């Protein structure tokens, strides 16, 4: 796994916005993206203001030039009522319509596997061995692809350094 650090006062991990891949390469309109993640030091924190419910982005795929139009990601936020517990969310955009759904709660420092499978007009998300979620995607823009790496917030910036270990395959 590669370590991503979101420095205090920033949104982006390691100063990185995304990594490029070519979605035109894939046969039969199938994209498979998988790996593991682990939340390390700083990833659990106490509530820090009005926008503390904004979801932080963990990892995912974006298509087209604007990932706020067509993308799918895993997002996360600490469970402020349980020290060391982190909530994992599905987080996606379909034609600029942002949606999110709670998937599960995990322990900080636990190594978790994930999968994003894109088949025809659907996204399939899987966490660990048993949490699966299916999302219909009406947007067909798959001419330019981005692997989306950790990002803190919405509106707030990281109020402390956050360390996340993240592994991912080459998208295939």
Largest sheet: 6 strands, antiparallel
The third-level CATH topology is: Jelly Rolls
Number of strands: 12
How many whole angstroms does the radius of gyration measure? 15 Å
Give the end-to-end Cα distance, rounded to a whole number of Å.
18 Å
From the structure provided, what is the oligomeric state, counting identical versus distinct chains? single chain
Widest beta sheet: strand line-up: 1-12-3-8-9-10
Percent strand equals over 45%
**Count of individual helical segments:** 0
Helix content: under 10%
Poorly predicted residue ranges: none
Write up this protein.
This protein has a single domain, classed as Jelly Rolls, CATH 2.60.120. The protein has 172 residues and is mostly beta strands. It is globular and about 40 Å long. The strands form two sheets. The protein has a six-stranded antiparallel sheet with strand order 1-12-3-8-9-10, with no helix packed on it. It has a six-stranded antiparallel sheet with strand order 2-11-4-5-6-7, with no helix packed on it. It is built from no helices and twelve strands.
Question: How are the SSEs ordered, and which strands pair?
Answer:
Blueprint: E1 2-6, E2 18-21, E3 30-39, E4 56-63, E5 70-78, E6 85-94, E7 97-107, E8 112-119, E9 122-127, E10 131-136, E11 145-148, E12 162-168
Antiparallel strand pairs: 1-12, 2-11, 3-8, 3-12, 4-5, 4-11, 5-6, 6-7, 8-9, 9-10
């Amino acid at each position: 796994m590669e370590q991503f650090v979101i420095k205090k006062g920033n949104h982006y991990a390691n100063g990185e916005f995304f990594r490029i891949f070519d979605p035109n390469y894939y046969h039969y309109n199938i994209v498979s993206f998988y790996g593991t993640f682990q939340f390390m030091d700083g990833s659990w924190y106490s509530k820090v203001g009005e926008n503390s419910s904004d979801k932080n982005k963990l990892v995912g795929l974006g298509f087209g030039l604007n990932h706020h139009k067509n993308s799918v990601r895993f997002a996360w936020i600490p469970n402020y009522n349980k020290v060391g517990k982190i909530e994992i969310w599905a987080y996606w955009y379909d034609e600029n319509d942002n949606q999110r759904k709670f998937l599960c709660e995990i322990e900080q420092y636990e190594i978790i596997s994930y999968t994003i499978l894109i088949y025809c007009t659907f996204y399939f998300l899987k966490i660990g061995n048993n949490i699966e979620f299916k999302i219909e995607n009406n947007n067909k823009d798959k001419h330019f692809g981005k692997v989306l790496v950790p990002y803190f917030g919405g509106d707030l910036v990281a109020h402390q350094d956050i360390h996340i270990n993240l592994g991912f395959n080459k998208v295939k």
